[in-house]
Amino acid sequence: MTGSHDSVLVFLSIFIAVFASYTALSLASRARASGGRMRLAWLATASLAMGGGIWSMHFVAMLAFSMPDMAMAYDPGLTLLSLGLALSFTGAGFALMNWRGSSLGTVAGAGLLIGFGVVTMHYVGMAAMSMDATLSYEPVWLGISVFIAVGAATAAVWLAALDHRTSHRIAAAAVMGSAIAGMHYAGMRAAIFTRASSHHTADGLASLSQTYLAIAISGLTALILLLALGAARVERSFAAYAKREARIALRLDVADVLRQRETKEALNQIASLLGKHFAVSRVGYGQHCSAENSLDFEVCWTDGSVPPLLGRFPATVFGSVFAQALAGAGTIVAQEPAGMNLREAVPPLQKGGTTEIRSVVAVPFDRPDGSRTIIYLSDTAPRTWHQEEIRFLEEIAERIRLVIERALVEEQLRELNATLEARVEARTVALRQAEEARRAADALYRAYFESSPDPLFVIGVAPDGGFVVEEINPAHEQGVGFKLEEVRGKRIDSLLPAADAERILDTYCRAVQTREVYHFRDTFETSGEPQHWDTTLVPLCNDKGEVTRLFGSSRNVTRQVVAEEALRQSQKMEAIGQLTGGVAHDFNNLLTPIIGALDRLTRKGVGDERDQRLIKGAAQAAERSKILVQRLLSFARRQPLQPVPVNLGRLVTEMAGLISSTSGPQIRVLMDAPDDLPPAVADPNQLEMALLNLCVNARDAMPDGGTLRVSVSAQTVAFETADQLQPGSYLCVSVADSGVGMDEATRRRAVEPFFTTKGVGQGTGLGLSMAHGLAAQLGGVLRIHSEQGRGTTIEIWLPQSAAAEELAPTEGHGAVLKKREAVALLVDDEDLARASTADMLQDLGFEVHEAVSAEDALSRLNSGLQPRFLVTDHLMPGMSGTELARTVRVTHPDLRILIISGYAQGTGLDLNFPRLIKPFSRMELAAKLSEVDGQSASAKEDQDGPVEASIPPDALPLASAG
């Protein structure tokens, strides 16, 4: 059977539960704020309100329940028993609580007690029902009702232990009351009513007498709860009044103590007053020492239950609470502070006592000497600190800070009075010394201003925003040309041309607006030449922060700018040179098999006359390509050179006829080349080519005729020049013409490869770049002096040789050539180049053994191969040709070695080994092998007498031609 509920009584039961919860929370707050018997009284009242309210809600809800056609009555004894159970269990649960700060275990225990009391009260009340039916329960809803009862009771205890504002308390009461009502109606949902076999039919609705009884019980409960709330309100008012009076009295006591006692005595007395007022176990002061990160406790009061905390201890002993206060986090309040264990800091009491801290409040403040002091209150029991208590404690801390400051100031005042006369005298001396120092500094600044090699100036800022010259130093007068008497007091815009003045005024305005030091570079035209100046402006402000003057320092950096431009040009040319050198080296490797193949085809007479003409044309093109690559390598400073001491005067004189014939009849050629000059370090062949190119350029610059002068002179350089020419003795070869000349832009780009002002097909643009690379490779420089319309002078500076000029060897010197079979070991990683060189060697009569790497060559030599010649490329993967030659020189000292390379200054190339430059023809290879064999034979002849060379007979005419 199922019953029904009266909705009015249901709402009334829920209201009773909520009202009882609110009353219990309010009374519990008074228990937290009270002590001794008053706390017990308030706990009993709260238990009565909670238990009675729960029972009243339950009873009214029972009266709201009815069964159809069944009369219901209640057993008075069981009904009163249910009331007693509710009061008993609620009182026991509240008594178990520690209202100043309970743990989760205590809250859970009290919740279980009250919850089971509610469950017992409910089901005893259900048993008090008398009806013509049997009562049983559904297990699921029975369990739900028990869970709700325990949960609601635990929540009630936890909420009662917290400190709530009125709004929070109302919300908590609504939640808790609804949960209590939910438990009851869940229990009613679990009830199963089974009608007896015979029963009396009656009105199943709640009778009028039941309704009146429910209203009467509800009214009585509400009246009791209202009286309890009123009593709590009155008691709270009296307690607040007593607390205010106690705080006023404490303030007066603190003021009296601070006024009448010495500082340390006053601090001890105040600690005692605070401890008794707040009823804590320990009050003290700790001064922080930042250098040692320690706390020094000189004052401590205890209530006797804990030992005093005195002495100096590491700050880490006190965990994070004091650390946060020392870090400037403000007042710190903590319950059971983590990491704080005073057993390491204080000894336990002889009898009883504890060092455990369950709650602490720490108020930091800064002292006048920069240190930080902490006032702390700690207790061995958990405690909830109210905001008004914390504010009051902060107020007392501020008073203590003031008295500490007052004591410190008084001590300082006493010391000041004791030393005032001496301090005045010392101050007078210091002022006099400062004045003398200021005068000396002014004189020093004036001396610096007058003597500085940099132009210095002071510009005043006029009220209208204009700029007026106030001071300039002698260096400024000399560098710029203005005299101080001529410009002092004059505005900038009246001294400079309009364009310059506008530009300068813009920079001055920027410095004034930003109030920051401003660096800038400007260019002026003086005497037709651009002058570059670096200037620094320093704004000088008055007391109002307004810029009133600009102090400026300038420096003529024209030479630096020119040098920087030259360096950039040099770096640019170096980068182009590296790229060009790499490309040229690759072309050499490609040209080697081409020239070798064409040479072989020419010698063999392959094809008809037309084929021979084409082969000859291809060979000429290959030779022109070879010359072009040599020019590129010369520009890149990687041209293979044979530097020897050269008499430049004799070389230039011998070239006079060639230069005259090349220049033509319209050009007058003058030679100034003394024969008695010291020799220079040069490669005569490359130098002749460079001079001839320069003379051709000079001829092209004089289309209507003119004068070409070639001269040689000895020069001495004392200091490193802007174009990085080192100090020393040099020979200078000069080629001067009276032609059209070059403008500045053309002059700066003249040595760039492929740059030319000639028409298409009239020049490669490599003549000057080759001469520039040649001079740099030999340790000299190339200089260009030119003026448009007045001609050009190009100078090649070469270092003077320390050795005398080498004369050409006489005929008949060297090894005697004889027909003899010879073995050559050829090493090259390039297949085409290796195949071409192998063909040349075979044509010369050699038995050729090929190796693709230096490691392969060493393996063949170690396997018993005994060649007469080792011909090896230099740049190869792994071991280079030079490294191979050095190794073989030790293991096979009689082996003739020839290194072939694309250029002479590759990485690791040893110039002491004979070398042949790619690309080369069969004739050049034969000549070089003959030279190598002759050198080896000469060396052997010095030791053992005459020997015979090993070059095959068909190479003799080629070697002679070479």
UniProtKB/TrEMBL annotation:
What's its EC? 2.7.13.3
Source organism superkingdom? Bacteria
Q: Write the signal peptide boundaries.
A: none
Domain PAS, residue spans: 441-515
Alphabetically ordered keywords of this record: ATP-binding, Kinase, Membrane, Nucleotide-binding, Phosphoprotein, Transferase, Transmembrane, Transmembrane helix, Two-component regulatory system
What is the designated name of this protein? Answer: histidine kinase
Enzyme class, top EC level, equals: transferase
CDD domains per the UniProt record, alphabetical:
HisKA, PAS
List the record's Gene Ontology CC terms alphabetically. Answer: membrane
Domain annotation Response regulatory: ranges: 823-933
Q: Where is the PAC domain?
A: 513-569
GO molecular function annotation: ATP binding; phosphorelay sensor kinase activity
Membrane spanning segments where? 6-28, 40-65, 77-97, 104-128, 140-161, 170-192, 212-234
Asked whether the keyword ATP-binding is assigned, the reply is yes
Among SMART domains, the record links this protein to: GAF, HATPase_c, HisKA, PAS, REC
**Organism of provenance:** Tianweitania sediminis
Span list, region Disordered: 931-962
Reaction(s) catalysed by this chain, per the record, are: ATP + protein L-histidine = ADP + protein N-phospho-L-histidine
Modified sites of kind 4-aspartylphosphate: 873
